[in-house]
Amino acid sequence: MAYSNKVIDHYENPRNVGSMDKNDDNVGTGLVGAPACGDVMRLQIRVDDDGKISDAKFKTFGCGSAIASSSLATEWLKGRTLEEATKIKNRDIAEELNLPPVKIHCSVLAEDAIKSAIEDFRRKQKAKRALQTQTQDDPEPAQEAQETPNAPSEGKRSLPIVSSQPER
Amino acid sequence: MNPFKILELEPRFDLDLDAAEHRHRELSRALHPDRFVGRPASERRLALSRAIEVNEAWRTLRDPVRRAEALLNLHGIDSGETSSAKADPELLMEMMEQREALAETRASKDLPRLRDLSATMRDRQARVLDALTKAFSHDPQTALPVLAELRYVRRFLEEASALEDELL
Ligand code: FES
User: Half-sphere exposure of residue B50, counting CA atoms within 13 Å on the CB side?
Assistant: First the structure.
């Protein structure tokens, strides 16, 4: 089967291959698989405090179309808000890469990975907020993240910055 | 088309493959075009199309994934890619790790390690096949997630054997 030039380009020079610390609260990790073929994909996003995706990385064990789809997806994700990121659909990816119908499930994998990374990030943020609310001994409804500068905050552990693994 | 019926076999997952192959050979011989020389064209056509069916049935039954799909089909359960419920995150995580380990052996050209990984996965395949036999004898509906696992396992084994050829 002939791959389009764009697929070959992403396949030969995949952008943003690598990983980020999945335990970092600002990182959302999406891990998905295509039962149709048994291939797997991991896609991660780093979301800054302004709510924008500042970085995206992926690792795909799959066909050329899946690698190209996830590579393209990471490029598209950077600079978007989460809201905008959810608008990336497999159709857009398949169209951009000119994927034939039999390869659609590979771009679906990329869309699923984006969704699952966003879900993971949101879940983490929710858990973090819950933890902060809980650890504040204030009986009043918690005004979170309003700590006084000299009071060490309990809920907000400072997370070690773990640099992402070198790209291969 | 029910491949079990075509080969006149009892529909079960733990099929006796030798017996099935034997049946396939017998039927193929009986349907061989040489035996229909001088017979009416309609009879020859019929024999030919039956021979094709018999071949296809054997190809389906010898492959555990396709055999499982055929059984599910008999039970009216959709096993297509769209029916697949979200894969178990733990399974995906494991498969991602295994595929990463496989990629590492490619980079390090570590043949013994590769063989180790394959052996472990083949053990796992044997367990998954057992689990499928059990699922089919109790409740075919429970076979779906096991079948998904089998697909990931077999994908790994395919990749591993391709890599082994490459490293040899
Ligand atoms: S064939 Fe498996 S992801 Fe494309």
Answer: 19
Report helix angle B111-138 to B64-74, nearest 10: 20
CB A116 within 8 A of CB A30: yes
Q: How far apart are CA B22 and CA B31, in angstroms?
A: 14
Helix (H, G, I), strand (E, B) or coil at A86: coil
Topology (CATH) of B89-167: Monooxygenase (1.20.1280)
Within 8 A by CB and 6+ apart from A34, the residues are A40, A41, A62, A66, A105, A106, A108, A109, B81
pLDDT digits (tens, 9 = 90+) for B29-75: 999 999 999 999 999 999 999 999 999 999 999 999 999 999 999 99
Q: What does the DSSP assignment read for B60-96?
A: HHHSHHHHHHHHHHHTT---STTTPPPPPHHHHHHHH
Residue the block writes with tokens 């070198």 = A166
Check if the beta carbon of residue A49 is closer than 8 Å to that of residue A9.
Answer: no
Domain residue ranges of chain B, discontinuous segments joined by +: 3-62, 89-167
Residue among B116, B95, B96 at smallest CA distance from B105: B116
Distance, in angstroms, between B147 CA and closest chain A CA? 9
- pTM (predicted TM-score): 0.80
pLDDT digits (tens, 9 = 90+) for B117-139: 999 999 999 999 999 999 999 99
Q: What ipTM was assigned to the predicted interfaces of this complex?
A: 0.79
CA distance A13 to chain B (A): 17
Ligand 1 pocket check for A70: Cβ under 6 Å? no
Q: Which residues of chain B lie closer than 8 angstroms to A168, CB-CB?
A: 107
Alpha carbon of A106 to ligand 1 centroid (Å): 5
Tell me if B152 and A59 make a contact (CB, 8 A cut-off): no
Q: 1.10.287.110, 3.40.190.10, 1.10.10.60, 3.40.50.620: which CATH number matches B3-62?
A: 1.10.287.110
Residue in A10, A25, A22, A1 with CA at minimum distance from that of residue A123? A25
A37, A102, A127, A145: which one is catalytic? Answer: A37
